[in-house]
Fold:
Amino acid sequence: MKDISVSTLIDMTIGLAAGDNDSERFNKLLDAIRKAIQCDCVALLSLQGDLLVPLAMQGLTRDTLGRRFKVDEHPRFQMICNSKTAVRFDNDSDLPDPFDNLLLDYEGDLPMHACMGLPLIYADKLLGILTLDSLTPNLFDEIPSRSLEALSAIVASTLKVALTVSQLEQQAKQTQQRFEELNEEAWERDGGEIIGSSDSMQLLKSDIEVVAPSNFNILIHGETGVGKELVARSLHHLSPRRKQPLVYVNCAAIPENLVESELFGHVKGAFTGAEKSRLGKFALADGGTLFLDEIGELPLAAQSKILRALQNNEIQPVGQDKVETIDVRVLAATNRDLQQEVSEGRFRSDLYHRLSVYPIQVPALRERNGDIILLAGYFLEQARRKLGIVQIKLGKEARLALSKYNWPGNVRELEHVINRAALKARARGNNGSLIKVSIDDIGALSSNQELTTHNPLKHSNRNQSLDWSKGLRESTDEYQRLIITSVLSDSDFNWAKAARELKTDRANLTRLAKRLGITVTKQHKIQVN
Structure:
């Protein structure tokens, strides 16, 4: 063997892309090497710390793959690792051969033979070595050094790519496993179970079980506070996509000029302020589920882009010419009558029909006969854990009051009432192990009172004397603060919804609130400065 031909080197590189995994690719590489260089055995070893670990080998006993060779205990390996070029050992070298007694079809110490090792260096870092042995002495002597350098470069590059890909695959696997565990923890922590045994809730649960395993896009209807998000999480959790992300989007909270960027992403420089590229919610949900809450608040322009994504499974980030393919299941929720919105031209009919293949109606709490006390018990147990209470129960009068109330704020209102009552009951408790929630802890529950709080202007007492001692401007500001904070609270701190209730533009409402010193914290608390 005098040289390694160019065609042989090409065959090596072509074979590297043919294998399905590292083991296959490495063995194809060794096949190509043995065709170019006649030898009785060849081995590829990776340097891991101070150990050489076999990755692939031919002509050696299978148990060799399980061995780990400490470099400083094997002089030949040590010489190869310390060299920058190929090392050819003399036929009569007295250095022990690490592969003595390991050659296939040969028993005992190796006789005089040819031995060569190539250090595999990538970016000045030793990744491993390639060794070749032949029972024919001097077989490797006439191979040009330049050819061996080319061989070393190809094998080193192959090893680098394989190690990098393996590392990335391992990291991806760990990330996916961690993500799945966090998904499951969040599901259990947030209370994934839908509480209720009423006929309407049994029907809802049945609908969820039927449609969850499908890939249908779902439109979830229901009043504010009925638990549409919990239904969406249940649909995702019971679907084949449960191990993939569930991405939540509050459509009402996105400024109109940023809707497209928020949903579909943008590239750097796409618009003023786009200092770096950013993935949109559709891309983040790829392979999983996208939950579009308050979808009725989206402008028509954004609706058309969502329709394209649903029809073609394609999105186009702002400022990018290339179209990207996605695999996303969309769950949409609204408390609006979308059919009426369609008839009045505020919602696209084609998008409505695309979403409502299997519409799900979440019943209001007042329609769930017998579920109020079940939910109250569920929320009481949550409050008990949060407040560190040993035991807590509802008094008879409190249960009766909860059952008679029509709950305009639905399940969310019940949760707030129970948490507030538990806090009050603990505060007046006698440090006993059992705390009883009384009707006084529940407080006044009245639909009329709710309406009065919701719109103080509409239900104010005309004969009530007005206090204008602060002056017209300050008195007016005070009254505006009262109206805005009341409507914001009843609108679940949704600025767009509050603006509609007050028949004003959202931007004007937020500017007025800012002037009046009204802010809403992340914990949904209103502050007036």
User: Anything to note?
Assistant: The chain has 19 helices and 17 strands. The longest strand covers residues 125-134. Residues 106 and 486 are 91 Å apart (CA to CA). The longest helix spans residues 145-189.
